[in-house]
Amino acid sequence: MTLTTAALVGFALGLDRVAGEPPNAAHPVAWLGRLVGALDRPWSDDDRVQRSLGVPIALVVPLVPAVAASGAVLAAAAVHPVAGATVAGLALYLTTSLRMLLELASEVVAATAGDLETARDRVRGLVGRDTDELSPAELRSAALESAAENLADGLVATLLPFAVLAPFSLPAAAAAAAWVKGVNTLDSMLGYPSKPLGTASARLDDLVMWLPARLSALAIAVAAVDLGALARARGWARTPPSPNSGWPMATLASALSVRLRKPGVYDLNPDAALPTLEDGERATRVVFRAALVAAALAVALGAALEAAARTAGVVA
Description:
Blueprint: H1 2-19, H2 28-39, H3 47-60, H4 63-79, H5 81-94, H6 99-111, H7 116-123, H8 136-165, H9 170-190, H10 199-208, H11 210-223, H12 228-237, H13 246-256, E1 260-262, E2 266-268, H14 277-311
Antiparallel strand pairs: 1-2
Helix pairs in contact: 1-5, 1-14, 2-9, 3-10, 4-5, 4-9, 5-9, 6-7, 6-8, 6-14, 7-8, 8-9, 8-11, 8-13, 8-14, 9-10, 11-13, 11-14, 12-13
C-alpha cells in the first residue's frame, strides 16, 4: 500500500499544480464554510454560553466532511478498487492548497517592485492585518509569513494523516484529511478572541496543528539545506500568539537570514533585515521544495508504520 499512498499523494499534488483549486461554487471547503457561516451568530448574550455552545460545534462540524469523504471512497470502492483510490486522491486534493498560496505570495512579492497598491490589495488574500501603511519590505514580510504558515495549514496538516492512514485504509485516510480541513476551516472562521463561540474550535486547531507545524519547519530547513535553521528558530518560534505558526515562520526567517515582522505582535530574526525582492523570490522556491520534502516525509512515516504493523502481525 505504500506505493499506492505515494501515487495518491503525487496525484493530489500534481492535480493542484496543474489545475489549482476548483471554483468556490464547486469546492467542498466553500460548502463547509457556508455551514460554518450559518452557525456563526450570537446564540446568546452571555459569553460563557457562547463558549459552551462552541464545544459541540467544534466536535460535530468537522465530522460532516469526514463522513462525506469516507462515504464517497467506500461507494466508489464498491464499484472498483481503482475508483475508490481515485476518489481518495481527489479528497486529498480538495483538502490541500499549494499552488494558489505560492502564486499569491509571488504576485505580492513581484508587485512590491513598483506597484504597491496591487501588492497591498493582493496581500489581503494572505493576511488579515491592515496593509495601507505597510512598506514594500513589510508587504514582502507579510507574504512570506503567510507562505510559511499556510504550508502547515494548507498542505501538511491534511497530507500527514492521509499518508499515515492510507496504507491501512483509504476511507479512513480520506476521512482524516477532511476532518482536519474541517477543524482548520472552523478555526479560520471562528477562532478569534472576539468570538467566544470559536474558543473550542481554536483550542482544537492548536492541538491538531502541533505536529504539522513542526514537520513543516523541518521541511523548510531541509529544503533550504540548512538544518541549523531549526535550532536557531527555536528562540523566536514561541513569539507569535499561536503555539504553532511561529515554527514554520521562524524557520523560514532563519533559513533565509531575513526578518519577518508583524508590528506589535511578533518579530522573528530581529537582527536581520526585512526581505528584499530577491529574498521573496527565493522564499517561494524554498516553500515549494519544502512541500515536496513534507510529502516525502509523510509517505515515509506511513511506510514505516505499515512495516511496523506487519512486523507486529497487526496487518497481513
